[in-house]
Q: What sequence folds into this?
């Protein structure tokens, strides 16, 4: 097809892989993510651990995929869900609200802080549904305030906002988009500051070039001549680049540019929200106030499918005073059992001070210990040579592997290095999240690490030992 890039099935990402089809792989009635891999059957979880049906234990250093924040198998959460199911399992949001939805929305607005006072929360079943909701909310807001020409959503290269077609259209993850490009609406994508591989070749940790990336956004807004409805960004990049923290001043400038041009600011905190970075929401690190904040994953910590779109007062007021209804809906939005799970998770993480535990700048916290242990990998004999970068914040970290530390040359993508490390780690009872594509969407191997905030110092030491051994084993394939 003309203009359609060839789809490359190779990928370390859990969503696609090109490892050989094992002879022993049995066909399943479940359409799984891969036909090339055997998946153990998980049967139990407790604390940082998961167990499979053969009795093997795994330490969940990835929080599955940056989902679990409070630990697995917390009895209070399942008990609250069971109570809700026994009382009222479901009503449709076109007919009823529920006490759990009203109470939880108020609590979440308070958790999101002053910027969202007087706002409102739209509940969904996960990240992608929440992103779709946020994009439509932004468009409807612009129409309601008399700006119907604004419909374009600007996003960033090397971002990830979800797998539904609307969310894919604003994502920059090349591998996950490629095959579906003919089906998605394309809007402008701008560069993302990725200091380890800065496009401006700076030597000061992007202290100054954050402004150049922000200026690129302003040029993109001006180029589409009054059609920009919103700009969407991950405050700390997640599934594509792996835990890239923005340089000082960049997000503040982005926010200011958006305000000046009447463009809404949508913070995608699907991965970074609910304490993962050591703040309730990651935007707080940079004192940025988005118009719309999207969160999922840690919101229910995986106990139920749940996402939330937190809209500021200005958005809600515009719709209330305008057409009076948000033209959007899913059968299962605000599902009472998911909300009961999310509400119990919020209560639990507040009672246990887990946001503080995830603050890697606080000495003695699990996240500070994790940061220190990971950073020690850089200079280890035997594996230090392939560890190009260790980056992150709070309990969201990435290790990027390279073929050469000086030139930062990536490993050949066909070696599937990060997937090999992950497979070897899994054999040792350690779960990590492997990815490829950080350099140019195809090459660039890294691991995403996002353990539950209840991880202990001993568990961290054990996990880093296994990670070291798994990396060493994978280097034998190079
Ligand atoms: C930043 C971000 N946005 C959106 C999504 C999509 O969320 P979900 O997989 O729950 O649909 C993800 C998933 O990894 C994500 O990391």
A:
């Amino acid at each position: 097809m003309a203009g359609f890039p060839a789809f490359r099935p190779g990928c370390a990402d859990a969503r696609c892989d090109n490892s050989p089809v094992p002879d022993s792989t049995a066909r399943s009635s479940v359409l799984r993510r891969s036909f090339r891999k055997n998946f153990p059957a998980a049967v139990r979880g407790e604390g940082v651990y998961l167990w499979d049906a053969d009795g093997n234990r795994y330490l969940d250093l990835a929080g599955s995929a940056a989902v679990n924040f409070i630990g697995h198998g917390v009895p209070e959460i399942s008990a609250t869900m069971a109570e809700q199911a026994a009382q009222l399992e479901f009503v449709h949001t076109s007919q009823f609200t529920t006490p759990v939805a009203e109470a939880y929305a108020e609590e979440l607005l308070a958790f999101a802080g002053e910027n969202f006072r007087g706002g409102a929360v739209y509940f969904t079943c996960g990240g992608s549904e929440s992103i779709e909701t946020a994009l439509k909310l932004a468009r409807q807001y612009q129409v309601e305030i008399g700006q119907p020409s604004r419909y374009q959503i600007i996003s960033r290269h090397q971002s990830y906002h979800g797998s539904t077609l609307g969310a894919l259209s604003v994502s920059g993850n090349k591998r996950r988009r490629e095959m579906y490009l003919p089906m998605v609406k394309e809007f402008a994508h701008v560069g993302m500051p990725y200091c380890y591989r800065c496009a401006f070749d700076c030597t000061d940790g992007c202290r100054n070039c954050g402004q150049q990336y922000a200026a690129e956004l302003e040029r993109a807004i001006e180029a589409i001549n009054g059609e920009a409805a919103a700009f969407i960004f991950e405050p700390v990049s997640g599934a594509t680049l792996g835990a890239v923290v923005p340089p000082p001043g960049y997000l503040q400038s982005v926010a200011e540019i958006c305000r000046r041009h009447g463009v809404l600011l949508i913070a995608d905190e699907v991965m970074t929200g609910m304490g993962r970075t050591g703040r309730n929401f990651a935007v707080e690190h940079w004192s940025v106030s988005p118009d719309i904040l999207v969160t999922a994953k840690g919101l229910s910590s995986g106990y139920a499918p749940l996402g939330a779109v937190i809209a500021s007062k200005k958005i809600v007021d515009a719709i209330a005073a305008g057409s009076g209804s948000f033209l959007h809906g899913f059968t299962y939005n605000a599902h009472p059992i998911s909300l009961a799970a999310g509400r119990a998770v919020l209560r639990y993480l507040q009672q246990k001070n887990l946001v503080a535990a995830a603050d890697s700048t606080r000495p003695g916290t699990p996240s500070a210990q994790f940061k220190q242990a990971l950073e020690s990998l850089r200079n280890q004999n035997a594996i230090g040579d392939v560890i190009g970068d260790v980056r992150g914040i709070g309990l969201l970290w990435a290790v990027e592997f390279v073929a050469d530390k000086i030139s930062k040359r990536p490993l050949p993508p066909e070696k599937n290095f990060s997937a090999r490390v992950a497979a070897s780690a899994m054999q040792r009872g350690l779960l990590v999240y492997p990815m490829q594509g950080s350099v140019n969407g195809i090459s660039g191997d890294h691991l995403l690490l996002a353990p539950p905030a209840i991880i202990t110092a001993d568990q961290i030491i054990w996990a880093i030992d296994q990670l070291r051994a798994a990396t060493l084993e994978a280097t034998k394939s190079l």
